[in-house]
Amino acid sequence: MFNRTRRFVLAALPLAAFVLMTASGAAASDTAITRVTIPFAFELNGQHFDAGRYTFECRFGTDLITLTPQEGARRAFFGRPLGDRSSAREPKLVFYKVDDNYYLAELWLAGSGMGKGLPVKKGIEFTAKQGAVTRIEVALNR
Fold this sequence. Notes:
The protein is an alpha+beta fold.
């Protein structure tokens, strides 16, 4: 009995630590929300989005980003940190244009000083690092 209880407690500790860190980080951070009209269809994480009005939300201190079309269901994505808080950047979206396709690659929200890199196909990301794709920037309101 003691051995089974001990295994349960040891298995539950990482989950409890994750819940505690997530809850404390969420309470201590703010959420950045921005609305933008994107004038062209684009892809994000293998999903196609039509041109239109979108709302982006990002909770500071996490890598979770939500994207909500004006008419449609909310979708969540994980981003990776770009830049540092000391380098203030203008709020914007960065797209990679390959042929006639646009891929949302970066999200820079006002007030955060940091950007989020979004999931892009590895081949496109590699080509972008070599400077062989067109970068399209869409300014966001502050």
